[in-house]
Amino acid sequence: MYEVGVVDQFEAAHRLQGNFGPATRRHGHTYRVELRVRGAALAADGTLCDIGQLGDGLRAALGALNYQDLDELPAFSGRNTTAEAVATHILQAVRGRITTAGLKSIAVLVWESPSAFASYEEEL
C-alpha cells in the first residue's frame, strides 16, 4: 500500500465542554494537520496522488479555521470542538477538493501539541 501526504498548520482557540480539567477554559493551539491518502497502485506517471492538489485542498480547508474561535463557527455548532471533531471537519472539507480515483482511503491527523493528536480516516 502506498501513502502520500502533506502537512500544514493553523492557529485557533476553543474550549472543551465536559470533564476536561483546565481545557474547559478558553485556550489556543497551533494545530499541526497531516493529510494522508493511501492506495494500492500508482498512476501511469508513477504517483499515487498529486501532492500539489493535496496541499491546495488542505490550505483551503484550514484557511476557514485560521485565527478563529472554533466554538463560534457554524460548522461546530452543537459539537464539542475536540481534535476528533476538527479532524472530521477538515477531512470532509478536503475530500471534495482532491481527485480520489484509485485511492483507498483518506485520513487527517490533527496535532494539538507535539505529543497529542487525533485522527479521522475514511475509506474511499
How would you sum up this structure, described in words?
- The chain has 124 residues and is α+β, with helices and mostly antiparallel strands.
- Helices cover 21% and strands 36% of the residues.
- It is built from two helices and five strands; from the N terminus they run E-E-H-E-H-E-E.
- A five-stranded mixed sheet has the order 3-1-2-4-5.
- Helix 1 (51-63) packs across helix 2.
- The longest helix has 13 residues, at 51-63.
- It is elongated and about 50 Å long.
Relevant terms:
124 residues, alpha+beta, 2 helices, 21% helix
In short:
21% of the residues lie in helices and 36% in strands. With 124 residues, the protein is of the alpha+beta class. A hairpin with a 2-residue loop joins strand 4 (105-113) and strand 5 (116-123).
* Secondary structure category: alpha+beta
Q: How widely separated are the two ends?
A: 14 Å
**In DSSP terms, counting alpha (H) and pi (I) runs of 4 or more, how many helices?**
2
Note the quaternary state here. Answer: single chain
Question: Strand share of the residues?
Answer: 35-45%
- Please trace the helix and strand order, writing H or E for each element: EEHEHEE
Shape: elongated
Largest sheet: 5 strands, mixed
**What value does the average pLDDT take?**
96
Count all strands and give the number: 5
